[in-house]
Amino acid sequence: xxxxxxxxxxxxxxxxxxxxxxxxxxxxxxxxxxxxxxxxxxxxxxxxxxxxxxxxxxxxxxxxxxxxxxxxxxxxxxxxxxxxxxxxxxxxxxxxxxxxxxxxxxxxxxxxxxxxxxxxxxxxxxxxxxxxxxxxxxxxxxxxxxxxxxxxxxxxxxxxxxxxxxxxxxxxxxxxxxxxxxxxxxxxxxxxxxxxxxxxxxxxxxxxxxxxxxxxxxxxxxxxxxxxxxxxxxxxxxxxxxxxxxxxxxxxxxxxxxxxxxxxxxxxxxxxxxxxxxxxxxxxxxxxxxxxxxxxxxxxxxxxxxxxxxxxxxxxxxxxxxxxxxxxxxxxxxxxxxxxxxxxxxxxxxxxxxxxxxxx
Length: 360
Hints:
alpha/beta, Aspartate Aminotransferase, domain 1, Aspartate Aminotransferase, domain 2, 3-stranded antiparallel β-sheet
């Protein structure tokens, strides 16, 4: 892993603990992007003649990376646009369960569309709270982030798979933006019906790319009847009228989606299991060290498993102090968010711990 750090120039002059805000650009991806634009420069429209086949190959790469089906994978510029498109196809009389305090791209997107909304609380007993909310409110849909963006509480994947078995009629929609790329994952056995993701964080795909995976038959369920009727009667090409076209409308950018594909292949070459084990080691060490300093909230300490994101007690003054020591973090919620990826090391954690001691 330390050899791979050479791919990331930012790491030569900063301790980068901010993947939850933005994954890093790296040398070989930059080379790909430059070659892509050079080909476009030389070829013009000829370069775009094979875009359909290329974008199909991107769908295949995404599906293979996450254990889905290429036929049920759609490309979208980001999670938020894809999620809003999903919501626009759902009848307004549906009841949607959310997690209180979840990412605004989920919660506000639902709340501003006049759905019947109910909530479960995020704390040490989040999974229990979800089940109690389901029993109490009987929702049609459960939409949530797999990892909470402020404090890093991660929803137990085994719980979700079991939840789907016990409540098969609930449509489960998950945002994997703070999750995909951190661990081995198989969408087909996850119990999740729809998984959306933006590619600019742990997938290192840069901006302007995202995707949605659907289980078999789900696209039909969330497509308005009026759209289906019009598509059957239309003489237009399927690229305009298919169920996928509702998401993949317009001219998708081969640079952005090529970057996502390149990075997924890059991560696969490293080995997602190798990345997972390294990140787990880093997170265990970080949780232990931050606990010694009494910097973590009680709900996080009580949970057995945690994600790659931590929120430590601190204010803008501490955030500025860390930045002055070339430690890159984010202000989120009531504290300072720290996030770890495979290019981070134990030494990175030791550095921030030493600076925190010095600050105190």
